[in-house]
From TrEMBL, chain B:
Gene3D superfamilies: 2.40.50.100, Nucleic acid-binding proteins (2.40.50.140), P-loop containing nucleotide triphosphate hydrolases (3.40.50.300). This is sn-glycerol-3-phosphate ABC transporter ATP-binding protein UgpC. GO terms for molecular function: ABC-type maltose transporter activity; ATP binding; ATP hydrolysis activity. SMART domains: AAA. It holds the Pfam family TOBE_2. The gene is ugpC. Keywords: ATP-binding, Nucleotide-binding, Transport.
UniProtKB/TrEMBL annotation, chain C:
Its main location: membrane. InterPro entries: BP-dep_ABC_trans_perm (IPR050901), MetI-like (IPR000515), MetI-like_sf (IPR035906). GO terms for biological process: transmembrane transport. The keyword Cell membrane applies. The chain crosses the membrane at residues 12-33, 75-96, 108-130, 142-162, 183-206, 239-260. Keywords: Cell membrane, Membrane, Transmembrane, Transmembrane helix, Transport. PANTHER family: INNER MEMBRANE ABC TRANSPORTER PERMEASE PROTEIN YCJP, MALTOSE TRANSPORT SYSTEM PERMEASE-RELATED. This is Carbohydrate ABC transporter permease. GO terms for cellular component: plasma membrane. It is found in: Cell membrane.
Amino acid sequence: MDKAAIRAPLTASPAGGGARSRGLQGFLLQSPAIMLLLVWSVVPLLMTLWYSLRNYNLVDPTRQGFAGISNYWYLLTDPDFLTSLENTAILVGGVLAISVGLGTLLAVLYNEEFAGRGIARILVISPFFIMPTVAALLWKNLMLHPIYGVYSAMMRAVGLTPIDWLSRYPLATLVMIVAWEWLPFAVLILLTAIQSLDTEQKEAARMDGAGMVAQFINITLPHLSRAITVVIMIETIFLLTVFAEISVTTAGGPGVASTNLAFLIYSRALLQFDVGGASAGGVVAIVVANIVAAFLLRAVARNLET
Amino acid sequence: MATVELRNLRKTYLHEEIIKGISLAITDREFVVFVGPSGCGKSTLLRMIAGLEDISAGDLLIDGQRVNDTDPARRGVAMVFQSYALYPHMNVYRNMEFSLRLAGMPEAERRRRIGDVARILQLDPYLDHRPGQLSGGQRQRVAIGRAIVRNPRVFLFDEPLSNLDAALRGQMRVELASLHRRLGATTIYVTHDQVEAMTMADRIVVLNRGVVEQIGTPLELYHRPRNLFVARFMGSPAMNLLPARIHALTPDGMAQVQAGAVSVSIPTRHGGPEAGTAGTLGIRPEHILIDPQGAITGMVTISERLGAITLLHVRLTDGQMIVVQTGGDNTDRADTPIRLTLGEEHCHLFDADGMALAREADHPLLSDL
Amino acid sequence: MARTRTRLRQGVVTILGWAIALWMFFPILWMFLTGFKNEPDAISTPPHLFFSPTLSSYRDVFAREDYWHFATNSVVISVLATVVALLVSIPAAYAMAFLPGPRTRMTLLWMLSTRMLPPVGVLVPIYLLARATGLLDSRTGLIVIYMLTNLPITVWMLYTFFREVPVPILEAGRMDGATRWQEVTQVLMPLALPGIASTGLLSLILCWNETFWSLNLTSSIAAPLTTFIASFSSPEGLFFAKLSAASTLAVAPIMVFGWASQKQLVRGLTFGAVK
């Protein structure tokens, strides 16, 4: 084998080479992507770890040096931290529930034939193309503004007193705004999945006497499970790091009522100039993300295998 | 002009040996068919010859030259894939031109060659069609044309007809055979369909679990199966196989065989079995005769009338099932009794290890071998 | 009986389908309309459904900020980040799909897991690194970061698309004498073009709308439209017409692009999860 490899022409197409050369080639082709991501994920992580163990405040350069775990201690005992974790969970969970639940129903609806369906579909998915800042400004000012907002005008028109949604129910309103951005994504994917559903399966179920609801539960929903996994995975990636919407609408307030982990760290780092504390928060955020990722990736791996 | 020689070829995949040492010499212009059940390694072996799979051990020689580590494209082989594997984004002309273009052949030469091949395969009207616009049979022709234009030393076919319907398959079988006669190129053809193997091959290689069970001409395999596996695999309807015991051997070479209620004496050549050993009695459906005086009795359970012939499925009195092939004018119905005789000189006898015992009977074309 | 029920159902579906579609789209439509109002019209209560359209808000927006500067940045950064991401991920996805090793699956999942790291967790070091290398407020800096954040997604998507390409076609190319390079460029890429296109589309949209890094790492020179719109958020938040005009300008290009390529995009977004 080895001797043969030496005798083989150097110009040989790699395809004909031995298993070892195939493996090497595969590695070489992947290595740019792997190296980039390795550097991208490891270097900042190590730096964050390093800063998190130091006293480092941009406003007060005199206090330097090793801080031990005091940054972590300070953060973990801060009641704001727990609130922000809770808010993160509510934000991610709430938006996922709305986009998957409503998304499935809408996917079924937009799979039905009706006049102007193509245009209706495009209108429904349009919010996906809106950048987070614009979405937040749009809802905060044009829609939900207690005096000038369209929704307030509608409430007045039916005799109700307009509500200042963002200060009365900051987190719930944020969930609504973010869900408006991400629901279209879920509809897009689930609709495509439904379209690929074998009609023979549904017809067989009808022959077996399954009604609309039974068909949905027994045929459509299982068929969508892979697509739902993908929706959950992708949306979680983005929802864990929701930032612009909070920054534009409530700035985390009132108090910390709508501060999620990402915004908490941000406010520490850039508003209080506490690099050490922010880095400790960053490490915690990374740990949280990894816990979530471990669960998600397991589900994805299982679901995309077959 | 090309010979292909396999010397103890082996393929190991993830610690499992799937080709277990195959040796074979294919002469120039020969049409060799690899046949066997799925998973027997026939496609792997073909892909090793093509250069698409690495050879773990052994030597592969084309025209006497070792090509184990040569690129597929430099081995002088062309392959027709089961799925045709046409380039869907190129039209028929471009599909056939691709390899010539990569080889740097001048434009005029390319056009001339493709024109010739298109004429042979009646593809002229479709040269600017994309594969998606063609029927199954036409795509098949393009795949063959793509192989021919390269003017390869060896043609490799990987189950090329399995995606066609029955009528087209029969037609393409004839076309391929006549194409082979016309081009005279060495051809290796993989199939699981023993009808294709029987009708097209100069020689058939029967593979099973990575080893060669038997190599021979179609008639050899049919009439002189080396073992039970080949006997079972070649021929449709399949050979009837009954567990048997050899009672006695007469001095003139007649073996007294008892298989359930069936008792026959089979002529064997010298070096036959020993009396008292167990074995298997084999008889092809067309060698069982319906005979009102026959010693074997049973009930017809199903009769399959194929028109030209009739297949009777008979339950013998001892409960064994056998298939009898008879003429299309047969009148036996299901659930009626029947009496049969075995053509004793056509019986096959296998020993306890499943190896065939040499026999007297033969096909006339085989006698001079 | 059955017929009337079908017709009733048809009616309900049509009304529901359109009602939800209009409700989802209403904020965008309202934003678009408000951009053509003057300020008093924009904040009148109750809102005016009919008004005399004016371009004055757009004129104000163009007078205040150099829209084209931001828009050019958005286009250049999104396109280049996408192109580089594709160039890096096509060979990787090819190797994973067609030369898989025992660690391929793990590598893919690991890549995806890097996408789950919250950017805010590494904001400080990235900020300091960018400052140290002079990439702060530079197009190159954002291009590099966008490319890196999108890489896991593009690799994964391309991998699922490549896996749908029938292997025998690539093998036929190899038999026909194609080198690895020719196999990828002349056989695989034309075959997987729809998949590559939709991967690029998604990457473009994600880059265009990325807000965190652009707000934190750019201020003027390299600032894309996300920064442009942020500058309208607080002090002039109550100038609804101007805000709407600016917002419309920020989202219009990518929205029109998204509508036009919707079919292509849908194919890609399914990540091979939909068969």
